[in-house]
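Tokens for ATP-dependent 6-phosphofructokinase. Go.
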Amino acid sequence: VKCIGILTSGGDAPGMNAAIRAVTRSAIYNGMSVKGIYRGYKGLITDEIEDFKTQNVSNIIQRGGTILKTARCAEFKTPEGRKQAYDKLMEHGIDALVAIGGDGTLTGARIFAQEFNYPIVGLPGTIDNDLYGTDITIGYDTALNTIMECVDKIRDTATSHDRLFFIEVMGRDAGFLALNGAIASGAEAAIIPEISLEKDQLAEMIENGFRKSKNSSIVLVAESEVTGGAMGVAERVEREYPQFDVRVSILGHLQRGGSPTAQDRILATRMGVAAVDALLDDQRNVMMGIQNDEIVYVPFSKAIKNDKPINRELLNTLRISSI
Ligand code: ADP
């Protein structure tokens, strides 16, 4: 491998810049050249490609978002679009790609890599933590800390008014942010899609004497059709349990922003260096993961196909710690 291309795609996540920096510097350290591809697969097709030197990634480790920008790209889902992308890679002499993104990005990478027998290594960049084979993803810890800070603030007003707050957090059908966010912020409960499928979490919460001993309560709800989101849950409470004074807060995009935490910066840097090592080692079609603080290679097929399970011990921990 002589020239590596880097792109960020799909939803942005804090720590992506730290990953871009690490990939760039590690590739240059190993004698390769680097090209930054802007706006994900879209910029690959439309030729938004720039030579990257070590200075291109100076002073970015602390910045949220992604300097390479990101985009959704419908053309990349078609064989014609992917052929255009392949032609651009050839034109620029890019002979391997590091793709940073979530489930969609890695799905695209997997299809492309197979179609053209082209080496791609992926980095898990998503606040949702919903990729299988890695304990955590880049951006998750920062988002979790942001959620914790927001819930701390809402708690001040919730206790002043004796209110029941439903706070919706992101997760795209995964409950990691809601569950760990609830534990970290001392919330009473979390309503998450993984468990909504099994039982009526709201009914159980209220039957268990929820809020008997407390004047105000905070419940985190993962955004998802399965949970109904914070609005859906609140509407149900107003109908079925009108004794509660209910409020809803949807945290939204602020969860994506902000300077990455130390954990996210370190994770992104380790994974970025590991991605270049993996390419030098002729690895392809693998995502960098972290398990028990060791870097592991997870085949794309595993990372995207399997649903990452919620750790059940956390459910119990939240239940006990919120009595
Ligand atoms: P994320 O990577 O955060 O999950 P998306 O799901 O939006 O974000 O995916 C990002 C991009 O990856 C899409 O806009 C598209 O270009 C590409 N992609 C997603 N799914 C596929 C697919 N099945 N085939 C090819 N490309 C895909």
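The longest helix spans residues 140-161.
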